[in-house]
């Protein structure tokens, strides 16, 4: 089985990291831009689970992303759990996160029509749980850490931060498929999927 990781950009003008990991954790990564490119890459990968670094649902009680939206709820249950875990994140209703949320929700619907299950993840949170650096700290250190887990592109060339985060997303998709993962949030809203913390 192939596992897909997508580090989605808010705009097609910015790079989206894309990764396909096979059952032996050999990874192939690339940078994409448009939704069409992403959907074509997903179809070619023949995976059935895509872990996406983007909000895929609004907070319960919020019906749109506009500032004047009725209810004006800013945080989802999974976001509040991240806060309790002391994992830093951006609320989905601020600035450019609105564009990312809108694009993520649309992409999830498009993937569903292809028979691909989309799960929301957060590579920064996954990296914190795994005890490896975030890309903002050091791209080189993050790539070295992932090279201890995976083979393929991560060993063969210097990857962008978006590609490295996409690898973390693909690893979460693998965990989800195996049933060994952490799900946080309210299932009636959305569950964010993360690696299971080491005991």
Main sheet summary: 6 strands, mixed
Proportion of strand residues: 15-25%
Care to count the β-strands? 8
Q: What is the annotated CATH architecture?
A: 2-Layer Sandwich
Superfamily (CATH H level) name: Ribonuclease H-like superfamily/Ribonuclease H
Number of domains: 1
Helix-strand category: alpha/beta
**Poorly predicted parts:** none
The CATH class label is Alpha Beta
Overall form = globular
Radius of gyration: 16 Å
Our count of helices gives 7
Query: Order of strands side by side in the largest beta sheet?
Result: 5-4-1-2-3-6
CATH topology name, in short, is Nucleotidyltransferase, domain 5
**Mean pLDDT value:** 93
Descriptive account of the structure:
This protein is an alpha/beta fold and 199 residues long. The protein has one domain (3-194): Nucleotidyltransferase, domain 5. Helix content is 38%, strand content 19%. The protein has seven helices and eight strands. The strands form two sheets. Strands 5-4-1-2-3-6 form a six-stranded mixed sheet. A two-stranded antiparallel sheet has the order 7-8. A hairpin with a 4-residue loop joins strand 2 and strand 3. Helix 4 (123-130) packs across helix 7 (161-178) and helix 5 (139-147) runs parallel beside helix 7. The radius of gyration is 16 Å and the shape is globular. The model has no long low-confidence stretch (mean pLDDT 93).
């Amino acid at each position: 089985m192939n596992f897909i990781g997508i580090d989605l950009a808010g705009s097609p003008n910015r790079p989206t990291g894309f990764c396909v990991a096979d059952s032996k954790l050999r990874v192939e990564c690339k940078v994409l831009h448009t939704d069409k490119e992403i959907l074509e890459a997903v179809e070619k990968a023949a995976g059935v689970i895509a872990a996406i670094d983007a909000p895929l649902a609004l907070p319960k009680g919020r019906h749109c992303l506009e500032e004047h939206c009725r209810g004006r709820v800013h945080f989802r249950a999974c976001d509040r759990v991240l806060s309790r875990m002391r994992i830093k994140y951006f609320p989905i209703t601020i600035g450019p996160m609105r564009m990312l949320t809108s694009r993520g929700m649309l992409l999830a619907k498009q993937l569903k029509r292809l028979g691909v299950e989309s799960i929301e993840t957060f590579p920064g949170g996954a990296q914190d749980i795994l005890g490896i650096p975030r890309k903002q700290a050091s791209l080189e250190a993050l790539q070295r850490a992932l090279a201890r887990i995976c083979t393929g592109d991560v060993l063969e060339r210097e990857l962008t931060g978006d590609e490295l985060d996409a690898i973390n997303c693909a690893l979460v998709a693998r965990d989800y498929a195996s049933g060994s993962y952490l799900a946080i949030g309210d299932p009636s809203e959305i569950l964010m999927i993360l690696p299971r913390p080491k005991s």
